[in-house]
Design a protein that fits this description.
Number of strands: 11
Strand order of the largest sheet: 5-4-1-6-10-7-11
Radius of gyration: 18 Å
CATH topology: Spore Coat Polysaccharide Biosynthesis Protein SpsA, Chain A
Oligomer: single chain
Strand content: 15-25%
Largest sheet: 7 strands, mixed
Distance between the termini: 39 Å
Number of domains: 1
CATH class: Alpha Beta
Bound molecules: cytidine-5'-monophosphate
Shape: globular
Protein backbone atom coordinates (compact mmCIF):
# COMPACT_ATOMS: atom_id res chain seq x y z
CA UNK A 1 0.00 0.00 0.00
CA UNK A 2 1.31 3.44 -0.89
CA UNK A 3 -0.48 6.48 0.49
CA UNK A 4 -0.05 10.03 -0.80
CA UNK A 5 -1.42 13.16 0.86
CA UNK A 6 -2.51 16.23 -1.09
CA UNK A 7 -2.58 19.42 0.95
CA UNK A 8 -4.49 22.21 -0.84
CA UNK A 9 -3.32 25.60 0.42
CA UNK A 10 -3.91 27.76 -2.66
CA UNK A 11 -7.02 29.66 -1.56
CA UNK A 12 -7.17 33.43 -1.77
CA UNK A 13 -8.24 33.78 1.85
CA UNK A 14 -10.65 36.64 1.22
CA UNK A 15 -12.64 35.91 4.35
CA UNK A 16 -9.58 36.42 6.53
CA UNK A 17 -9.07 39.94 5.21
CA UNK A 18 -5.29 39.91 5.72
CA UNK A 19 -2.52 40.54 3.18
CA UNK A 20 -0.78 37.27 4.04
CA UNK A 21 -2.71 34.26 2.76
CA UNK A 22 -4.19 32.14 5.57
CA UNK A 23 -1.86 29.12 5.39
CA UNK A 24 1.15 31.40 6.04
CA UNK A 25 -0.27 33.22 9.05
CA UNK A 26 1.44 32.44 12.33
CA UNK A 27 -0.38 30.34 14.87
CA UNK A 28 1.82 30.71 17.92
CA UNK A 29 5.38 30.45 16.62
CA UNK A 30 4.72 28.46 13.47
CA UNK A 31 2.68 29.03 10.31
CA UNK A 32 -0.68 27.28 10.10
CA UNK A 33 0.52 25.29 7.06
CA UNK A 34 3.75 24.24 8.80
CA UNK A 35 1.67 22.84 11.67
CA UNK A 36 -0.54 20.91 9.26
CA UNK A 37 2.45 19.51 7.35
CA UNK A 38 4.14 18.47 10.60
CA UNK A 39 1.22 16.12 11.37
CA UNK A 40 1.54 14.42 7.97
CA UNK A 41 5.34 14.32 8.18
CA UNK A 42 5.10 12.34 11.41
CA UNK A 43 2.16 10.12 10.40
CA UNK A 44 3.34 6.57 9.64
CA UNK A 45 0.31 5.88 7.40
CA UNK A 46 1.42 8.52 4.85
CA UNK A 47 4.38 8.10 2.48
CA UNK A 48 4.32 11.07 0.10
CA UNK A 49 3.04 14.62 0.59
CA UNK A 50 2.26 17.14 -2.14
CA UNK A 51 1.50 20.73 -1.20
CA UNK A 52 -0.67 22.80 -3.52
CA UNK A 53 0.16 26.51 -3.23
CA UNK A 54 -0.98 29.54 -5.18
CA UNK A 55 1.37 30.50 -8.04
CA UNK A 56 2.33 33.67 -6.09
CA UNK A 57 3.25 31.70 -2.95
CA UNK A 58 4.81 28.63 -4.61
CA UNK A 59 8.39 29.78 -4.10
CA UNK A 60 7.77 30.98 -0.55
CA UNK A 61 6.01 27.72 0.28
CA UNK A 62 9.04 25.74 -0.95
CA UNK A 63 11.70 27.79 0.75
CA UNK A 64 9.91 29.39 3.69
CA UNK A 65 7.98 26.31 4.78
CA UNK A 66 9.05 22.97 3.25
CA UNK A 67 12.81 23.56 3.20
CA UNK A 68 12.91 25.70 6.32
CA UNK A 69 11.23 23.06 8.46
CA UNK A 70 12.81 20.15 6.55
CA UNK A 71 9.64 18.24 5.68
CA UNK A 72 11.25 15.21 4.04
CA UNK A 73 8.03 13.58 2.86
CA UNK A 74 7.09 16.55 0.72
CA UNK A 75 7.76 15.53 -2.88
CA UNK A 76 6.87 18.90 -4.34
CA UNK A 77 4.93 22.15 -4.18
CA UNK A 78 2.47 22.42 -7.07
CA UNK A 79 0.77 25.60 -8.30
CA UNK A 80 -2.98 25.48 -7.68
CA UNK A 81 -5.91 26.62 -9.79
CA UNK A 82 -8.80 29.08 -9.47
CA UNK A 83 -11.02 26.66 -7.63
CA UNK A 84 -10.21 24.12 -5.00
CA UNK A 85 -11.21 21.34 -7.38
CA UNK A 86 -8.70 22.56 -9.97
CA UNK A 87 -6.04 22.80 -7.27
CA UNK A 88 -6.58 19.22 -6.13
CA UNK A 89 -6.66 17.98 -9.74
CA UNK A 90 -3.21 19.47 -10.32
CA UNK A 91 -1.91 17.68 -7.26
CA UNK A 92 -3.45 14.42 -8.43
CA UNK A 93 -1.45 14.63 -11.67
CA UNK A 94 1.82 14.54 -9.72
CA UNK A 95 1.38 11.24 -7.91
CA UNK A 96 3.83 8.40 -8.49
CA UNK A 97 2.31 5.45 -10.40
CA UNK A 98 2.52 3.14 -7.37
CA UNK A 99 0.31 5.34 -5.16
CA UNK A 100 -3.00 3.56 -4.56
CA UNK A 101 -4.61 5.63 -1.81
CA UNK A 102 -4.93 9.42 -1.68
CA UNK A 103 -5.75 11.48 1.38
CA UNK A 104 -6.73 15.11 0.88
CA UNK A 105 -6.51 17.55 3.76
CA UNK A 106 -7.00 21.32 3.99
CA UNK A 107 -3.76 23.17 4.66
CA UNK A 108 -5.69 25.32 7.15
CA UNK A 109 -6.80 22.47 9.46
CA UNK A 110 -3.67 22.15 11.63
CA UNK A 111 -5.30 20.18 14.47
CA UNK A 112 -5.83 16.97 12.51
CA UNK A 113 -4.52 13.91 14.35
CA UNK A 114 -2.60 10.83 13.23
CA UNK A 115 -5.54 8.67 14.33
CA UNK A 116 -7.97 10.59 12.14
CA UNK A 117 -5.70 10.35 9.09
CA UNK A 118 -5.28 6.62 9.73
CA UNK A 119 -9.05 6.11 10.12
CA UNK A 120 -9.75 7.90 6.83
CA UNK A 121 -7.05 5.93 4.98
CA UNK A 122 -8.33 2.65 6.43
CA UNK A 123 -11.89 3.58 5.46
CA UNK A 124 -10.80 4.35 1.91
CA UNK A 125 -8.97 1.04 1.62
CA UNK A 126 -12.13 -0.71 2.76
CA UNK A 127 -14.94 1.30 1.08
CA UNK A 128 -13.22 3.32 -1.64
CA UNK A 129 -14.04 6.68 -0.04
CA UNK A 130 -14.01 7.78 3.60
CA UNK A 131 -14.32 11.30 5.00
CA UNK A 132 -14.01 12.87 8.43
CA UNK A 133 -17.26 14.25 9.84
CA UNK A 134 -18.87 15.22 13.14
CA UNK A 135 -22.55 14.96 14.08
CA UNK A 136 -24.34 18.30 14.44
CA UNK A 137 -24.73 19.63 17.96
CA UNK A 138 -26.83 22.71 17.21
CA UNK A 139 -30.48 22.73 16.27
CA UNK A 140 -30.88 23.51 12.58
CA UNK A 141 -33.73 25.62 11.19
CA UNK A 142 -34.50 26.79 7.69
CA UNK A 143 -35.08 30.56 7.69
CA UNK A 144 -36.73 32.75 5.02
CA UNK A 145 -34.92 35.73 3.49
CA UNK A 146 -37.07 37.93 5.75
CA UNK A 147 -35.65 36.19 8.80
CA UNK A 148 -38.70 34.12 9.65
CA UNK A 149 -38.24 30.54 10.75
CA UNK A 150 -39.86 28.18 8.27
CA UNK A 151 -38.98 24.79 9.65
CA UNK A 152 -36.83 22.86 12.08
CA UNK A 153 -34.71 20.39 10.17
CA UNK A 154 -34.32 16.99 11.87
CA UNK A 155 -30.63 16.86 12.72
CA UNK A 156 -30.15 13.25 13.80
CA UNK A 157 -28.67 12.29 10.43
CA UNK A 158 -26.88 15.54 9.59
CA UNK A 159 -23.10 15.68 9.84
CA UNK A 160 -20.60 18.49 9.33
CA UNK A 161 -17.99 17.38 6.84
CA UNK A 162 -14.28 18.01 7.38
CA UNK A 163 -11.06 16.79 5.89
CA UNK A 164 -9.15 14.41 5.77
CA UNK A 165 -11.02 12.81 2.89
CA UNK A 166 -9.39 9.62 1.61
CA UNK A 167 -10.00 7.67 -1.59
CA UNK A 168 -8.78 4.83 -3.71
CA UNK A 169 -6.73 6.63 -6.26
CA UNK A 170 -8.39 5.16 -9.33
CA UNK A 171 -11.88 5.97 -8.06
CA UNK A 172 -10.88 9.56 -7.35
CA UNK A 173 -9.24 9.92 -10.76
CA UNK A 174 -12.35 8.61 -12.53
CA UNK A 175 -14.68 10.84 -10.50
CA UNK A 176 -12.56 13.90 -11.36
CA UNK A 177 -12.54 13.02 -15.06
CA UNK A 178 -16.31 12.64 -15.12
CA UNK A 179 -16.74 15.94 -13.26
CA UNK A 180 -14.60 17.77 -15.85
CA UNK A 181 -16.62 16.33 -18.71
CA UNK A 182 -19.90 17.34 -17.06
CA UNK A 183 -18.56 20.69 -15.75
CA UNK A 184 -19.66 19.62 -12.31
CA UNK A 185 -18.10 21.46 -9.37
CA UNK A 186 -18.37 20.23 -5.79
CA UNK A 187 -17.25 21.93 -2.57
CA UNK A 188 -15.43 18.81 -1.43
CA UNK A 189 -13.84 15.82 -3.14
CA UNK A 190 -16.41 13.39 -1.76
CA UNK A 191 -19.07 15.35 -3.67
CA UNK A 192 -17.41 14.21 -6.89
CA UNK A 193 -17.47 10.59 -5.77
CA UNK A 194 -21.18 10.86 -4.88
CA UNK A 195 -21.94 12.38 -8.30
CA UNK A 196 -19.97 9.52 -9.86
CA UNK A 197 -22.39 7.14 -8.15
CA UNK A 198 -20.03 5.54 -5.65
CA UNK A 199 -20.80 5.41 -1.95
CA UNK A 200 -18.86 7.46 0.57
CA UNK A 201 -18.52 6.60 4.26
CA UNK A 202 -17.87 8.89 7.21
CA UNK A 203 -15.30 8.36 9.93
CA UNK A 204 -15.64 10.17 13.25
CA UNK A 205 -13.82 13.51 12.99
CA UNK A 206 -13.14 15.85 15.85
CA UNK A 207 -14.43 19.21 17.08
CA UNK A 208 -10.78 20.23 17.43
CA UNK A 209 -10.19 19.70 13.71
CA UNK A 210 -11.32 23.24 12.79
CA UNK A 211 -10.79 24.94 9.45
CA UNK A 212 -9.21 28.33 10.08
CA UNK A 213 -11.29 30.62 7.88
CA UNK A 214 -11.90 33.88 9.73
CA UNK A 215 -9.96 36.04 12.24
CA UNK A 216 -12.25 34.63 14.96
CA UNK A 217 -11.16 31.08 14.09
CA UNK A 218 -7.53 32.14 14.31
CA UNK A 219 -8.04 33.83 17.69
CA UNK A 220 -9.76 30.70 19.01
CA UNK A 221 -6.89 28.52 17.79
CA UNK A 222 -4.33 30.84 19.37
CA UNK A 223 -5.98 30.13 22.70
CA UNK A 224 -6.01 26.37 21.97
CA UNK A 225 -2.24 26.24 21.44
CA UNK A 226 -1.23 28.69 24.16
CA UNK A 227 -0.64 25.87 26.61
CA UNK A 228 1.35 23.73 24.15
CA UNK A 229 3.73 26.47 23.01
CA UNK A 230 4.63 28.18 26.26
O1 LIG B 1 -12.01 28.08 0.24
P1 LIG B 1 -12.04 26.97 1.22
O2 LIG B 1 -12.10 27.46 2.64
O3 LIG B 1 -13.01 25.88 0.92
O4 LIG B 1 -10.61 26.30 1.10
C1 LIG B 1 -10.30 25.07 1.69
C2 LIG B 1 -8.87 24.72 1.35
O5 LIG B 1 -8.71 24.64 -0.06
C3 LIG B 1 -7.88 25.76 1.85
O6 LIG B 1 -6.78 25.07 2.41
C4 LIG B 1 -7.53 26.52 0.60
O7 LIG B 1 -6.22 27.05 0.65
C5 LIG B 1 -7.65 25.46 -0.49
N1 LIG B 1 -7.93 26.02 -1.84
C6 LIG B 1 -7.05 25.74 -2.89
N2 LIG B 1 -7.25 26.29 -4.13
C7 LIG B 1 -8.28 27.12 -4.36
C8 LIG B 1 -9.20 27.40 -3.31
C9 LIG B 1 -8.99 26.84 -2.06
O8 LIG B 1 -6.08 25.00 -2.69
N3 LIG B 1 -8.42 27.65 -5.58
Amino acid sequence: RRVAALIPAAGSGQRMGSATPKPYLLLGRREILARTLEVFETCAAVHDVWVIASAEQQQHCRQGIVERYGFGKVRGVVAGGDERQASVWRGLQQLAPEVDLVVIHDGVRPFVSHALIEDAVEGAAQHGAAIAAVPLKDTIKRVSRQGQVEATVPRDRLWRIQTPQAFRRQLLQQAFEQAWQQRFVATDEAGLIEAYGHSVYVVQGSERNVKITTPDDLAMCERLIEREDH
